[in-house]
């Protein structure tokens, strides 16, 4: 089997049918697929795993995605918004700990005050860290003007997960209104790429109503879109969301996790030079889930550097790991964990995706 996969990888002859089959591999055959993903990572990107210090600076959100714990209609969430000082301090923390880059993430907002605030913050962070820390934004759907403005002020990577590349499945996961249109999201992703950001997307794996065929199409979507970075992980149910009603349809957490590993390995084979994150959702299901993702081909981890008193309020899903730890604990345990699996931290580097430069 391994020989076949190797051949498919070398010739790039990926199809929906082949990918669906490979996504279902388990047991010995799966092990071989995952090993091959790890081998491609070593060959094309080496041993380094890059750190992105994640700052979840606010859980205030204007959207109402059916799967997300911080959706606007969830009245049980204590809403917070970090001060600018706290965010800049997190950037300094990333710098001191040699993280190389950081991600600013929050619930989605697009009011003029918010746009202006991010613009100023970007400039302050650049100044305070002597431009050393790369900045990724994960702030949802915005206008082209906003994307341009933030790019000009120093952000150079943008993450916007498409969540699923299947329009009808997308519709089942979001309310039917103008704030939650599949085509708007797709257009935003195109604009982000056009503006010049290193462009990241991703999907959730094991959603109610989702099949291996959907996931195969997601992988082809990422390849066709020429994406530079991907963050994807298992869907994890949250009691206080509408999608919880459909929990009876879910695959077991283990199945969601194993399928996620296959997604990572296959994407590494399909796009050897991109950045792929070992996501926190993988760790939520398996305590060494991120390490397993790295062994299958992921090369980015996103340690949470949000001041820990707010972590409990940013629960997109339940059982989120590391919410009790301070950022320091995370930075120590991470490098040890990486060394244990034969990798090393890519300290002080932005860790850009070579794919981005090759498509320029
Ligand atoms: N389970 C897993 N991932 C989730 N996200 C949101 N809610 C959940 C959930 N219940 C992911 C989405 C979003 C990212 C920030 O977190 O893919 O884009
Ligand atoms: Fe906030 Fe989906 S609920 S963006």
Report a brief summary of the structure.
The chain has 360 residues and is of the alpha/beta class. It is globular and about 55 Å long.
Structure description:
Helix content is 45%, strand content 12%. With 360 residues, it is an alpha/beta fold. The chain has one domain: TIM Barrel (Alpha-Beta Barrel). An eight-stranded parallel beta barrel has the order 1-2-3-4-5-7-8-9, surrounded by four helices. Helix 10 (253-270) links the parallel strand 7 and strand 8. Helix 4 packs parallel to helix 5 (112-128), helix 6 (144-152) packs parallel to helix 8 (182-195) and helix 9 (212-225) packs parallel to helix 10. The chain is globular, with a radius of gyration of 19 Å. The model has no long low-confidence stretch (mean pLDDT 93). One of its GO terms (molecular function) is metal ion binding. This is Biotin synthase. It comes from Thermophagus xiamenensis. S-adenosyl-L-methionine binds at residues 163, 185.
